[in-house]
Specification:
364 residues, alpha+beta, Jelly Rolls, four-stranded antiparallel sheet, 11 helices, binds 2-oxoglutaric acid
Length: 364
């Protein structure tokens, strides 16, 4: 692997890269955003950025009871290909490859607009085996609806649900993303992150790009959204060597998984972010070890990134983060879920909190 994870990203799980597009490209992107906002002022229905559910245009602004209080435009880079302009920057691909290995998917690209006076989004982790960057369409200061993140929390930490009494409250060690329109921030999807409230009087907009290694998912979140023509238009925005990130290859994913993991290990890797025992067993297996696939050179292992390679798993450190009340609450739930699964009653199980790793068969 030619390029190492940049030091700050490795250490903090966060990296600010300034001005990844030209002034002209930013102006074109903002014009495209304006077109979308005029056509779909309330965005689209939305349940989770990591499932392949298709959103339909909303007819009213988000309510506090909605899944998110922000306005979401799913697979936005396919509706307006000019919004993929940041991907043309070669440094982006070197950084993505340094984290998830070669041959990754563009697993999702969505726009999120935080209207004025929107509350916080709770702390969570996003899918394992992936990395995200967020592109600022508006300059962001403090409490303007930007991402917040606890530096270093991508290593040796349980999911926030088990480690915080209130995932919606600010964390004493969190830092807030601030920057200029046109800047991007890479973040480790396994870092504890959330969204700050937008206390300003203007809406703030960001585009998220998530890249997954092929061993963790056999599909992409946008697979049921854009038409084949829209996918071709998106590809045409980028050099040919980048087109592979739009290509599904479920058989390769199956081989990358079953060649190295048992069905139980695959399940614990998928469930790791909402089941504590699964998280511990997955972390023990992966931390401090090479994250490269033994049979497929350059590919990383399922549900793994290169962040964990140089850091051994510390059970003491991990357990030290756990909070008794959330732990008990969710541990009881996990035991019940496991019992139901063994009884073959998984159909009646509630959806997990973050069902992002659902392995959905691609459209024929
Ligand atoms: O809005 C943010 O900054 C965080 C978004 C995020 O992590 C998510 O949608 O999963």
């Amino acid at each position: 692997m030619g390029f190492d994870i940049p030091m700050l990203l490795l250490k903090n799980g966060l990296l600010h890269v300034k001005s990844v597009v030209s002034r002209e490209a930013l102006a074109e992107m903002l014009a495209a955003v304006k077109r979308l906002e005029e056509k779909f002022p309330y965005g689209f229905t939305h349940n989770d950025n990591y499932t392949s559910a298709v959103g339909v245009p909303k007819t009213e602004s988000p309510k506090p009871t909605d899944y998110t209080a922000t306005i979401i435009y799913p697979y936005v880079g396919f509706m307006e290909p000019v919004l993929l302009a940041p991907l043309a920057h070669p440094l982006i691909h070197e950084i993505v490859e340094s984290v998830v290995g070669k041959d990754y998917y563009l697993s999702n690209v969505w726009m999120q607009s935080a209207p004025p006076r929107t509350g916080r989004m709770g702390f969570h982790k996003d899918p394992r085996g992936s990395v995200t960057f967020t592109f600022l369409l508006d300059s962001l200061g403090s409490r303007m609806g930007g991402t917040v993140l606890v530096p270093g929390s991508h290593i040796n930490t349980p999911p926030p649900l088990f480690a915080m009494n209130d995932v919606n409250a600010p964390h004493p060690d969190e830092i807030e993303i601030r920057g200029d329109a046109g800047d991007i921030f890479f973040f480790a999807t396994e870092a504890w992150h959330a969204r700050a409230a937008n206390e300003s009087s203007q809406g703030t907009r960001r585009i998220f790009f998530n890249f997954s290694n092929r061993s963790s998912r056999n599909t992409v979140s946008w697979m049921n959204g854009p038409t084949p023509e829209q996918v071709e238009m998106a590809k045409a925005m980028l050099p040919e060597r980048m087109h592979r990130m739009f290509q599904l290859d479920p058989e390769l994913t199956a081989n990358l998984q079953t060649d190295v993991l048992s069905p139980d290990e695959i399940r614990s890797g998928m469930n790791a972010h909402y089941q504590i025992l699964a998280d511990i067993s997955h972390s023990r297996r992966t931390f401090g070890k090479s994250s490269f696939h033994p049979k497929y050179p350059g590919y990383t292992l399922p549900f793994t990134t290169r962040f964990t390679e140089r850091r051994p798993f510390s059970m003491i450190k991990y357990l030290g983060y756990l909070k008794p009340i959330p732990l008990m609450k969710f541990a009881i739930r996990d035991v019940l879920l496991e019992k139901l699964r063994k009884l073959g009653k998984s159909a009646i199980l509630p959806a997990p909190f973050f069902p992002f790793n659902s392995q959905v068969a691609p459209k024929k």
